[in-house]
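Record type: monomer structure entry
Structure origin: computed from sequence
Chain ID: A
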Amino acid sequence: MRRKGSLPESYFTRQIDATEEKAPLISQYVDQDETCKEAFRLFLELYARCARNFAPGYPRAGGIYLAGGILARNLSHIQTEVFRQHFEENDRHRDILQAIPIWVITNYDVSLFGAAFAATLPA
């Protein structure tokens, strides 16, 4: 987007361009910079669409569970109607998708709990 000229370079984008780890800075500046806001909007839209593709296969799990540092650091943005709207954007399955709760995992130890549980299963 910015490289196509539709969004201007800024102090924030120059800082992001100069680092290897861009995602944390985009998250940090999402409320201060238009490019970061647009990048995060696209991230939310694509993440919601991906979650939607998995949703109908997991009704017994009690919802869709999303994990990751970007999500956990940006709960206020995930909990907006934008994410939910893109998640439910499917004419054929809209009723099913509207009934599925979406949870964001904020406990980083959850992967360790899963590994410990898997270790207790018979071989």
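Annotation 1: Residues 11-120 form one domain.
Annotation 2: The chain has eight helices and two strands.
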